[in-house]
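User: Hello, can you help with two protein structures?

Assistant: Certainly.
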Amino acid sequence: MGASTGPDGPSRSDEEWERFLRESVAGAAEAPKEPSARAREVAKRLRAEPDRGPEGWRSYTPARPKRRTGWYTAGLLASLVLLLVVALAPGRAVDLFAGDDPDSAPLAAETARPTQAPPAEAAQRPTADEPFRGSPAANWASGAAGITVPEAGAVGWMSATEVERALARSRDFLVMSSLDRGVLRGEHPEKAIGLINPHQEDVQDLLGTAFRTPGEESDPLLLFSRFQPSRTRLVGDVVKTRGRLTYREGERGALQVTADVTFVYPVAPAGSDDEIMRTIVRRELVLSWDDPDKVVTKPGTFSIVSYTYDVTNGGCGASTGYFTPPFGTDSRADEAGTEIDPYDRSTPVGRRGSAEGECGKATRS
């Protein structure tokens, strides 16, 4: 039979077509088979996709990862960071949950006079929530924790145990005189005065006069930090401190303790948060724990050898027995004073070059 012609061109010959039918019935391997509906669908999808090139021998195409949302990724990273913090510093993990600012972690205790002033901070105004913002004091310890007490050893008439007790009582005086909330609000510092030798007549006379009629030579501010509640209020419950106690043997075998401490008080006008500033007081006290066999003294008390202090943002003019921060227009009174960095603890107290009776002007607060 001759070849026939179909719509797609020349068809197979009669012999080829007959052989095809026989092989199809016999199930020959090479016989063409009609593709299934599934196969046709796959072929159609593959034709629609761009050619990806030949796949490598035994190559592996990983499954496409699912898209992660932003909160999932951020949460995963935060979890990893928290785990690392807990592993390396479990104590700081507690601070994180307590809302502690890591930038405000206290500095190491001061054990010697620093050689320079602390570095400058970015200029930021204090707020009611962050009263030490923009100040080196933000990284200082709070209250008594910022006053370093050295390890005790035997001195003069005192054993090491007695020296340790005297150092602790010396720090107690600083707390009672410059950190006690009642004293800061203008109350009479009875507990602090109780630690001073009642037989030291010159000091007792000064104290008797200072609280009755304060003046330049008999000012309670020489030993105590006080603010007048009707004019000034403390902001928050924290006073920042930095300083140390040192000791040596004094006259007649006495234990002589020197305290050099800076106190930073955040304050605002009474009844207002519109203006917040920091009154900064640095005190140096020299105390003598005398041998009762050689000096008339009451056991458990000390005599005051000397006292001096520097203050900025504490007010100028006639003494009132209180620090008077220069709020509002009062701040103009400080413009002519010698500039002082109140955070510079590298120089001795009261020796910063200001003229006698001149009010210092803080370069920063």
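That covers the first. Now for the second protein you mentioned:
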Amino acid sequence: MGIGGTAKKIQKVAEMAEDVYKKLNELREQVVEMRETVGETKDRVDNLEAENAEQRAILEAIAEEQGIDLDAVIADAHITEAEASNGEVESEESAESETTPTEN
């Protein structure tokens, strides 16, 4: 192999290294952006959790003032939600059995 062939190979390796370097820099920028986004999202979630806690405290105070059993209301809501979810599952299953042909 001559010097010309070696030079071509070295040039090709150098070009590949440049491409890898560019891609690495792009990836580094994406990671920085993602870290910023995650930080912003964490701040928003923290704020929402604090606001939710404040609202819950207010609702509990109002419920207590009005003589409402908050635990019973929450339990009823969960039961209603579970029944609705169960009804949806049963409706889907019955719809599937009605549209699925049976084999003889």
